[in-house]
Amino acid sequence: MAETPPVKLRLDKWLWQARFFKTRSLAARLISDGHVRLNGARVTKTAQAVAVGDVLTFAQARRIRVIQVAAIGTRRGPASEAQELYLDLSPPEDRAETPDRVGARPTKKDRRAVDALRATGPGEEG
To answer: 8-88 in CATH: which number?
Structure first.
């Protein structure tokens, strides 16, 4: 007999199944610290029920994730299976452009000149 997916699931368990967190206890800690919002309201209970259509907002890896629950899973499967559990509504990540290098790498002669300057100290000559 095939196992039917539940209609609702605990928030910490869903975040773990969808592979947003490596362990369920990490998900539970983030929730209990009040860093997760469910449909705009802050959630502090790890057993809060999540249903299809709910929107979750939380910080992860220096960006804000906005996730809509698309399905409730029955197990923590591979990443390809986990990606089917949600829709990512997060705004595109703004990558700060890395500044171009000012110049080439200093040569040995340049490094010796800098070392000599540092060795003399501030305000000292030769």
So the answer is: 3.10.290.10
